[in-house]
Specification:
112 residues, mainly alpha, three-stranded antiparallel beta sheet, 4 helices, 66% helix, 10% strand, elongated
């Protein structure tokens, strides 16, 4: 094959790929829209990061006075907006099984 024929063949392949790009772009756009809808659905199910004292108590399974005591002791992170004190639930580390075992062992050792 001559170099001119090779160049023409490559140019033809490039044009074919370029002609296919709107279809590919549409498919990518549809997929991004689907994924965006899924992310929105998940975000709607997540609790808000900031919660009132009573809402934080409900979500944490604690009484309102206990939440207030923990706020005063600095054990729960808060944000003050105007006169409202909101608990920053996003800053609270979830308790995992390994942590419970470590804490239980520490408690046993401290009572001996």
């Amino acid at each position: 094959m001559r170099s001119e024929d090779t160049a023409v063949t490559q140019f033809g392949a490039l044009l074919a790929a370029f002609a296919e790009s709107p279809r590919i772009l549409d498919a990518v756009t549809r997929r991004l829209d689907e994924l965006g809808a899924k992310v929105d659905a998940i975000a709607h199910r997540l609790p808000p990061a900031l919660a009132s004292v009573s809402e934080a108590a409900r979500r944490l399974g604690l009484s309102i006075p206990t939440v207030r005591r923990r706020i005063k002791a600095g054990e729960l992170p808060t944000v003050k907006i105007g006169a409202r004190v909101l608990v920053d639930l996003s800053a609270i580390k979830p308790v995992v099984e390994e942590d419970i075992a470590v804490l239980a062992e520490q408690a046993r050792r401290s009572t001996r």
